[in-house]
Amino acid sequence: MLSFESDYTEGAHEKILERLMDTNRESLPGYGADRYSESAREKIKNACRCPGAAVYFLVGGTQTNAVVIDGLLGACEGVIAARTGHINVHEAGAIEKTGHKVLELPEHQGKIAAGELRDFLKSFWSDENHSHMVYPGMVYISHPTEYGTLYSCSELEDISSVCREYKIPLYMDGARLIYGLAGAESDVSLPDIARLCDAFYIGGTKAGALCGEAVVFTKDRVPLHFTAQIKQHGALLAKGRLLGIQFDTLFTDRLYEKIGLHAAEMAGRLKEGLKERGYSFYLESPTNQQFVILTKEQYERLKKHVAVSFWEQLSDSGIVVRFAVSWATRQEDLEALWEVLDRLKMEETQEVG
Amino acid sequence: MLSFESDYTEGAHEKILERLMDTNRESLPGYGADRYSESAREKIKNACRCPGAAVYFLVGGTQTNAVVIDGLLGACEGVIAARTGHINVHEAGAIEKTGHKVLELPEHQGKIAAGELRDFLKSFWSDENHSHMVYPGMVYISHPTEYGTLYSCSELEDISSVCREYKIPLYMDGARLIYGLAGAESDVSLPDIARLCDAFYIGGTKAGALCGEAVVFTKDRVPLHFTAQIKQHGALLAKGRLLGIQFDTLFTDRLYEKIGLHAAEMAGRLKEGLKERGYSFYLESPTNQQFVILTKEQYERLKKHVAVSFWEQLSDSGIVVRFAVSWATRQEDLEALWEVLDRLKMEETQEVG
Amino acid sequence: MLSFESDYTEGAHEKILERLMDTNRESLPGYGADRYSESAREKIKNACRCPGAAVYFLVGGTQTNAVVIDGLLGACEGVIAARTGHINVHEAGAIEKTGHKVLELPEHQGKIAAGELRDFLKSFWSDENHSHMVYPGMVYISHPTEYGTLYSCSELEDISSVCREYKIPLYMDGARLIYGLAGAESDVSLPDIARLCDAFYIGGTKAGALCGEAVVFTKDRVPLHFTAQIKQHGALLAKGRLLGIQFDTLFTDRLYEKIGLHAAEMAGRLKEGLKERGYSFYLESPTNQQFVILTKEQYERLKKHVAVSFWEQLSDSGIVVRFAVSWATRQEDLEALWEVLDRLKMEETQEVG
Amino acid sequence: MLSFESDYTEGAHEKILERLMDTNRESLPGYGADRYSESAREKIKNACRCPGAAVYFLVGGTQTNAVVIDGLLGACEGVIAARTGHINVHEAGAIEKTGHKVLELPEHQGKIAAGELRDFLKSFWSDENHSHMVYPGMVYISHPTEYGTLYSCSELEDISSVCREYKIPLYMDGARLIYGLAGAESDVSLPDIARLCDAFYIGGTKAGALCGEAVVFTKDRVPLHFTAQIKQHGALLAKGRLLGIQFDTLFTDRLYEKIGLHAAEMAGRLKEGLKERGYSFYLESPTNQQFVILTKEQYERLKKHVAVSFWEQLSDSGIVVRFAVSWATRQEDLEALWEVLDRLKMEETQEVG
Questions:
Q1: Smallest CA–CA separation between A243 and chain B, in Å?
Q2: Cβ separation of A225 and D70 shorter than 8 Å?
Q3: What's the predicted TM-score (pTM) here?
Q4: In this structure, what DSSP letter does residue D96 have?
């Protein structure tokens, strides 16, 4: 069946698989001490133009968020995030499992606002006695957000500046960063992110790898005994080569960038095609996820032919569904989608008629 | 350089890589809901002759131990393990991180003894008031152990019987299970393990997979909301297919068994060859890890030519090193090893002379 | 200085101190096994008309909430509470420290609404896949709430009924329960609470004891190894007699009730007197805490003469302050307060004049 | 019944109760901000001759150990303790509940040896790769130990010196410190302890208070947001006055010292009297706890007349029981004990005869 369900439904970019094949019989040390991991770390630091950065490879996104946030927070500190932030709603309480609270800020299409962040911090610190409260210890954002929206460079600068004012680290969840960097409407680059964030991760899983996320600490803020912390969380991969080789491949010959551009191309066509067919959008997303409002009937029909993600039930009985493209989407997939949508539209009209 | 450092220094068995290639462009649901994961679960249940089992795939061993043990223990309960058990010494405190104590039993070449287990439990329960103590909530063993030793079927039956008497689950860490099942001296089969343990895992990482461990609950003791627990630990892989396809391959056409037999063959030759060359063994291991005592000088020379694992500094200045073979070891690797050892021996004799 | 700062600024009711004196040299077993603790447990069960209840004594409120909630929740479960619930804002993250999330509901003057609770639960369970979410595992309410407001018996019945429908326990924080039971506007009794809640605690600290909270489990839902859990949380008092004697005294000759009625009398006069003097109230509280809006100048003057609690800075520069009465407030304290307020009012008028 | 069961079976020293009475109606701020707590902190700093110390009051011993150890340890760090240390065996896993491992050292009548501590640390740090292990983050000792034994000043100096060498804090559990300071055989003073330890606590519960332990940080190592940490652990007492007044009384007119001397006097007589009557001792204890070996029959008879603590079942059917004296023991209690013991001895002889 045709699938626009998510950006992790296929395996890996073929170049990655080839590289795994080619290196398969090499005997390499474990736990990230192999030469491919070392090379990948160097290439990522270059891509970020941040030679002093420290780079670690983990397996998945929720794991990465839990390990990094638990590592950056001190006792009694919580992490500030948008109410809709992934760590607050879709990680089964992984942050709280480490003993830390998620401190909610209002969200604006998935984003937090620098002004509201400053107000929150100001209000906390203006109270003299905090010993009954959770201290705001860091800020979490994702880029793109849960809703596919993007921070502008100036928005990021404002948030970063508030964090520095209050001396707390800014951390960016980049599970889908590739789709944020490549979009035509994005003015944020990897070096910008390295400059403005204290830590962030470059998602591999949703960017053509089998698995893997590359955490980058840009400002000498690597948590104490960090490799042991990764191990303690059960997140230190024995065959670290699996992560090293994949990221080394992604950051060789600009593969990561090319994948992103292809996906952005597909994303633009998806959005355009849905618009042309008169669908209404739940919100304006400039990235690879498009949120469309369907009636229950439309949704029931559609899902017989195309895998999409159920997103949300609206109060007026409308249903939000997500269409996602990825590095793996081809022009013919889109064409097949148009064919299905047009056919369903016709059937709908006939029935009504 | 020639490597006998561990059983996870190569990539994956070629059949696994081929299968990943072949299925790469299939669009599959995430988080283990794909058909390969489903198929692998069925094949594992069959191999265990345990149709009622529940099978889950995780990424790595420490992670698996933490998720399963945290899941099986109730409040104020700890896990009984050998003093040298992996969870007690080499997992960076991953069990304690989940809030549970490891309750130590004496070890006998890495193994616990049923009699000592019974005494421990009897002594705990004979005290009337336990409210100041950690309750023994389950038993952890590994097979093979940290020292490559094996439980006999009758030893396992005794331990299992004590666990049932005291109504606590028995859990087996099978990171290297493949090397335990295949050895000529082993009388324990997968169905035996499924019969005697409440939970165990079949290690993939050290058995020719890129990563992955298959957890098997045999007696309806799957922890509450277990998939969410896996997620909460950051251990739920988005592209679950990566684990499903690998285990499906391992359990197709008896590949897992064949890999094991090959490794057992190599292990036998390794042990034999070391014996013939007059090395003394730290202990008698029937599996793929051999622990040999060297002088400091011997060790220094050796490691210039062959990667081995430093294991332990003995009080009398002897050094224990580990030679490991695996699914990936070939006859020519052994021959290269003999050549090196013989040459070093000759040099040593000449110098002394 | 005159103090209306809180309901825990004095020591203990004199009858309690006398009883501690009288029993002081008796040699009694520790950890709550003494006869006074036993007697107190029986009296509390009688007062609740719940002979099957299990009663435990702990030292303080935050401790009690953490121990009970951690005990009642399973893995991956969170506790539903009002956004303004004490556990969500004023306990320094004690719940998250135990690994559990607080799931926020909207608040209505500190209370949650049964309808919104049902919607939340319905929405959670209508989604088929929860493995990425925190399961709603119990409901927390406080009575009176953080704002001194009260649930009516019918509101409690509705909430209780939703909890039973979804098979999750209802837990009431009764830190200030004494002020909730005694008020003229309250139609909720201890037996009602025992009938409608699965667990609750009767606060001692704010009801004339030096310290101590009595936890009551009414429906056979005592958590596993609960005394050990209390110990593990560092909450098992060695000299349990200190708690037993105090609660035994409170529940002898209806002392708890009498204290409550006296405080309610004082609370009524406080509210009346503030109203007569034209103060505006932040909200309508029927209990011992009254929330009054002052200008910054009024607050600065007032606090030179009377200790009150700063509660909240309003956006329009108004300041909410809390006046609290308690078991220890005497008629002459109120008279002294009126004198101060009248004098300040006069000064204010003159200055303006 | 006559009781030598423990040192916490009575209420409080009468001077403490009087002081609670006298101050009862004073209106004081909560959470330790009252003037009695402030005064007590000053007196303790003076008694320790450590003007730069920071003093905090907590309610009980297990709580204090958990809060302080959790506060002092970083991520992936564990606390080194004797195998028989209270935190390792009698606190229901309170340390592990905070996520940290207890790293066991051998015990010598309850004590650790500086040499073995150094070996442990040296061995840990001589290994180059610790990322799979728990880092030794601090050292826990108790004085007296679980077996009533004492460190000499020179032993403490050696342990302290190892800790400084390895830059980890030394923490002393002083639940029974009063009995350690007063004994004739002790050459360790409060100022010695303050000089040699980074943190320790002065037990109140077992020294004539109703409850309460005074934590002293001597070297600017107060954990981050420590009052909030206390709150988060549920250990911040609302009526902090209860702790402040008790410690202020204990440290006024040398009451703490006098209580200790009285108890030491009683302890000496207890030991002497048991010796004279021919009992054999499980070990040589110089403090208020004496461990005596009885036959099962002797124990059964004894416990009908005197409350003592069952300590341990020896393998040869002997039973270790503990007799404890305290601040509350009077000469007539000892005389009553001798009467009982002599009578039982006579009955025993007659039966055998």
A1: 10
A2: no
A3: 0.97
A4: H
